[in-house]
Amino acid sequence: MAGYLFMMPAILVLGIFVVLPILYAVFLSLHKVQLLGGIEYQFIGFRNFTRLVEDERVWIALKNTAEYVAIVVPAQTILALILAVTLNSGIRGQNWWRILYFLPTVTSSAVLTLIFMWIYNTDGLLNDVLGAVGLPRYNWLGDPAVALKGIMIMNIWSTAPFYMVIYLAALQDIPQSLYEAAELDGANGWQKLIHVTIPILQPVTFFVVAMGVIGTFQLFDQSYIFSAGTGGPNNATLTVVLLIYQAVFRNLQMGYAAAIAFLLAAIIIAIALIQRRIFGGDKL
């Protein structure tokens, strides 16, 4: 009883802010919710979930989000590892480099998005550079083929430093004796990285990739700001979370939004389980 009393504050917080909202979301997903003129619930069973299959914008959002995850997660993981290995190699002024690299991570996401919008603007920095070398200006934000890529570049640049710090902490825990033994066997720097560093960092890589997948699947604010909440141009920046936002706050379809949210949760859980199996998560 004493143990449960000590746990009670945490149990109450989890119950009120996690369990109850999930149960309410399950309830919403099975109902059509009328918000105007008083809240009313009409039970419709699994109709919200069957509607997901028929909604073309759901498939577009899933495709955009999957493309975003498939490119950003590997890129930010590799870049984070490269930066961490470089900073751990004893270069001069490494503390200043750490601060410089980490600044984008502690900067507001909205501020970074506005800065990159200015860079991508038709009168922005990127087109000024192109004009200086004699190349034509380009509508980066208005072209569906490159709009999502612009968000990818921004997020790779801004999130890799966070994972760099995690890798850096793990690198400093690797015993130096392992590298000395590898040198005695004739291993060069590249071989030590491939056969010593990367295998030892496997648990950290599992964590970095898992957190990266969860974070990228929840892309919202950058897409919202870039497209003014529309997911444009031509749905090129429409993500699953932005679609949930539109369903709730523009179309007032809370039940349908809850169904989309459960679809997203199921995808994230499935991918996390696959990652765990690939990385041998049960042994980490």
TrEMBL record:
**Sorted alphabetically, which CDD domains does this protein's record hold?**
TM_PBP2
Q: Where in the cell is it found?
A: Cell membrane
Keywords annotated in UniProt: Cell membrane, Membrane, Transmembrane, Transmembrane helix, Transport
Claim: Flavoprotein is one of the keywords in the record: no
Q: How does it sit in the membrane?
A: Multi-pass membrane protein
What family name appears in the similarity comment?
Answer: Belongs to the binding-protein-dependent transport system permease family.
What name does this protein carry? Sugar ABC transporter permease
- What species is given as this protein's source? Calothrix parietina FACHB-288
Traced from the root, the source organism's taxonomic lineage reads:
Bacteria, Bacillati, Cyanobacteriota, Cyanophyceae, Nostocales
